Amino acid sequence: MSQRVVNVSRSRYEQTVAEARELVAQVARAQFALGDKALEIEPIRPVGGSAGKGPEELFTVEESLRLFADDIGVAPGTVEDWRWTASRWPAGKRRDGVSFTVHKVLASIPDEVERWVAIEDAPFNSRSGRRQWTTDGAKRVVGQQVDRPVSVEEKVRAVRDLTRDDEVAVKVTASLLARPETAAALPAVGRARVVTELTRDDEVATRVTSKLLQRPRVARQAMRDDDTRFTVNRAQFDNSEQAREQIRDRVPAVRKIEHTVEYLDLVGSCHQYVASLGRLVPRMRDQEFTDDERETIRRGIAKVRGVLTELRPESSQFSDLLREFALADA
Predict the structure, then answer these.
(1) Dihedral sign of CA atoms 171, 172, 174, 178 in order
(2) Rounded-to-integer distance, Cα 255 and Cα 293, Å
(3) Which stretches of 188-225 are DSSP H helices?
(4) How far apart are alpha carbons 219 and 179 in whole angstroms?
(5) Residue (of 279, 262, 277) closest to 313 by Cα position
(6) Sign of the CA dihedral 205, 206, 208, 210?
(7) H or E stretch including 46?
(8) DSSP for residue 3
(9) For residue 322, what are the contacts with CB-CB under 8 A and spacing of at least 6?
(10) pLDDT digit string, tens, across residues 37-79
(11) Where along the chain do its domains lie?
(12) Contact in structure between 186 and 194 (CB atoms under 8 Å)
């Protein structure tokens, strides 16, 4: 270990620390004494409790403590800290040699017995090599964010607290993801989640997806997923349909051509249907059918009728023709 600490020798530093500890102990005793006086002026009352009113209207707790703070020349918040900490640590439970700040931190432990036990069990300080209370040690006991984070969890919590502001979070995230080693260290699920969050905007998602699908290996892997393949095929169909609609709107003659083609397809389908039945029915007129076969034929006829009924356009000249066929007796 170095023989000097900053600008003094090691021995002088240790002497200074010992003197400072005594001063800290004196300060703690003074702060507790001040807290006791604030408690004398305004005792801690149960939730919902109130002071009785005398012939003269009394100050509220806040007004009394502010008046006391002004008269002794300190901030009202400081008086409130003294008062609250003193109320949590009765005189017989205060630990000599432990700073008032550590008492204040440990005062947040709700259970009294647990609080008394906690202050007797100082944590190990790896720097000094012995058990002693520090502010960060007390904060770790009660689960508060430490001033000098050491573990990964503490550092993560500190970063999370510093990035609560969205603007700060955006800049920090962009900076971290710009580091290849950081992005590569993320698990696949984590990276996918980051990409998902960054592509919630449809315009961004469109550009990213277009770039990704231009990579052959990515496209092959993506198309192996049934849902993805169905969505892509549906999108291609929708795009084609949209293009056809645009052409129809710009070129009216296209609608007439489509009408003619569809009309001919329909007539051809009707002829094919009649021809098939005309060829098959006479051959099977004298044949016997089992119950299962008869039921299968009935289901087939029902399906034909059902399809025509489902596809029948409303308020159309064609609807009467389809209705006549679909509802005809077999």
Answers:
(1) positive
(2) 44
(3) 188-198, 202-213, 216-223
(4) 26
(5) 262
(6) positive
(7) none
(8) S
(9) 308, 309, 311, 312
(10) 999 999 987 754 444 444 444 568 899 999 999 999 999 999 9
(11) 4-49+56-121, 300-330
(12) yes
H or E stretch at 131: strand 130-131
Lowest mean pLDDT among 4-18, 84-98, 116-130, 242-256: 242-256
φ/ψ (deg, to 5) at 36 = -65, -40
pTM (2 decimals)?
0.53
Q: Comparing 94-108, 133-147, 235-249, which segment has the lowest mean pLDDT? A: 235-249
Output the six-digit token pair for 69: 């703070």
- Across 52-66, 104-118, 169-183, the highest mean pLDDT is recorded for 104-118
Taking residue 66's Cβ as centre, other Cβ atoms within 10 Å add up to 17
Residues whose CB falls within 8 Å of the CB of residue 56, separated by 6 or more in sequence, listed in order: none
The kind and range of the H/E element at 5 are strand 4-5
By 3-state DSSP, what share of the chain in percent is helix, strand and coil, each rounded to 5? Answer: 70, 0, 30
Token couple for 270: 């009707």
